[in-house]
Amino acid sequence: MYDVIVVGVGGMGSAAAYHLATRGARVLALEQFDIPHELGSSHGLSRIIRLAYWEHPAYVPLVRRAYDLWRDLERDAREPLLVVTGSIDAGPEGSVNVVGARAACAAFGLPHDELDSDALTARFPGYRPPAESVAIYQPDGGLLRPEACITAHVSLARSRGAVIHSRERVVEWHADGRGVRVRTNDTSYAAERLVLAAGPWTGTLVRSAAPALAPERQVMLWTEPIRPALFEVGAFPVFYILVPEGPFYGFPNHDDRGFKIGKYHHRRERVDPDTMDRTCGAEDEAVLRGAVARYFPDANGTTLAMKTCLFTNTPDEHFVIDRMPGAPQVAIAAGFSGHGFKFCSVVGEILADLALDGGTRHDISLFRLARLPIAFQ
Ligand SMILES: Cc1cc2nc3c(=O)[nH]c(=O)nc-3n(C[C@H](O)[C@H](O)[C@H](O)COP(=O)(O)OP(=O)(O)OC[C@H]3O[C@@H](n4cnc5c(N)ncnc54)[C@H](O)[C@@H]3O)c2cc1C
Fold first, then answer.
1. Cα three-residue angle 203-205-211, rounded to 5 degrees
2. Are 82 and 70 contacting, i.e. CB atoms less than 8 angstroms apart?
3. Which residues make beta-bridge pairs with 243?
4. Which residues line ligand 1 (CB under 6 A)?
5. How far apart are CA 26 and CA 163, in angstroms?
6. Given the DSSP bridges, would you call strands 238-243 and 87-92 parallel, antiparallel or unpaired?
7. Contact yes or no for 213/320 (Cβ under 8 A)
8. What's the pLDDT tens digit per position in 178-212?
9. Residue 181 · residue 194 · CB < 8 Å
10. Is 125 in contact with 230 (CB distance < 8 Å)?
11. Which of 8, 28, 50, 362 supports an S-S bond with 13, CB 3.0-4.6 Å?
């Protein structure tokens, strides 16, 4: 008998297993694929972390706590996980990310600089934004190494007693009195509490939530910089930039893997994660190449790699972190809508709070299930 079963050992589930095991709980964590793997939402060598959180001010205290927990994890794991590069939020004056990043900096006293288009290029010559752009530069922004983060959480969770199985798929769960029962492709288990951290597959485990948790195909492109010095860590901050073609995000050339770019919501393809096309084609590349050629021309060398990945979008693009209606012994973390990875460390802490204490000191009111158009049976 376990205290807690965690379903899914990706970004969030690995962090939950780590925090639960650290607090002495008997944990079983189940992952349908290898750990880590490239079929979900938490692969591709880098994820942006930034304090200038324009999506909603409620995220800033959480991301501050996330930074502390990532640093603790690095120390425990003796592995570099978070690389500070600075972050750029750029777009036309009045755009949602510029206004929101400026407001977050003001509200939380974050150090930052405002740069017009010429000043941005002068300071970081890899950037050639449209002339009307303004940018908020925040020096604490950076990148996380997602596969290494998952591996660190998992190996430390194991060393603290967690039992973690890969290649075991949960096919069914139900709340059973005050506990839970979980059936997998292999066997079944019982526990007092359940944490659902199934990423894009959450809709298959919580059918009634599926309409509000939409998996979406994404594509990442890595190029060889033509002028590599402009795209080194230290010379090139991570970015989220709004241009006429849409929102793009990207990274310096860290670990010598190339300049990386993606388009937020890529080609707006809602998919089934079990049948999604994971090959990357010319149409995918064209979407990203155009932006490299126009806005980062010195990075527009040969293609080094392309990979698909999955967002899980809620209608308002805020997360779901809650206990299940009618089953308070079940906590759910899902719908991270393309911006969740940086929070894995603190979401793991919150999930451990919800599972072991029934509540958390963190303000997660923005992430309630009840705000979504879901009818739970
Ligand atoms: C291209 C791309 C770029 C992104 N960029 C950023 C960024 O820069 N910054 C940022 O903060 N966020 C970013 N995100 C978002 C972030 O990566 C995700 O929000 C986060 O990784 C979600 O983690 P998760 O644990 O919910 O999902 P996952 O990591 O996919 O984990 C879910 C796990 O559950 C397993 N699972 C599912 N069902 C079952 C089952 N029935 N039985 C057993 N196991 C199961 C899956 O196999 C998977 O391993 C990006 C996402 C993508 C796709």
1. 20
2. yes
3. 246
4. 7-13, 30-33, 40-42, 44, 47-48, 169-170, 197-201, 205, 218, 220, 249, 262, 309-311, 336, 338-342
5. 8
6. parallel
7. yes
8. 899 999 999 999 999 999 999 999 999 999 999 99
9. no
10. yes
11. 8
Question: How far, in Å, from the CA of 335 to the mean position of ligand 1?
Answer: 9
Output the DSSP codes for 48-95.
Answer: EE-S---S-TTHHHHHHHHHHHHHHHHHHHTS--EEE--EEEEEETT-
* pLDDT score, position 373: 87
Residue nearest to atom 5 of ligand 1 (CA): 47
Token pair belonging to 358: 């029934």
pLDDT tens digits for 14-68? 999 999 999 999 999 999 999 999 999 999 999 999 999 999 999 999 999 999 9
Locate the ligand 1 atom nearest the alpha carbon of residue 11 and give its number.
25
Which residue intervals of 88-247 are DSSP H helices?
A: 96-108, 117-123, 146-159, 202-205
pTM score: 0.98
Residue partners of 70: CB distance under 8 A and separation at least 6: 49, 81, 82, 144, 149, 345
What is the length of the chain? 377
The answer, yes or no, to whether the previous bond of 130 is cis (omega within 30 of 0) is no
- Quote the tokens at residue 114: 């405002």
Dihedral pair phi/psi, residue 122, rounded to 5°: -65, -40
Q: How far is the CA of 352 from the centre of ligand 1 (A)?
A: 18
Residue type, 358: G
CA 54 to chain centre: 16
DSSP sequence for 260-280: EEEETTTT-EE--TTT-----
Residue 34: exposure state from Cβ atoms within 10 A (0-12, 13-18, ≥19): exposed
- The reported pLDDT for the residue numbered 176 is 85
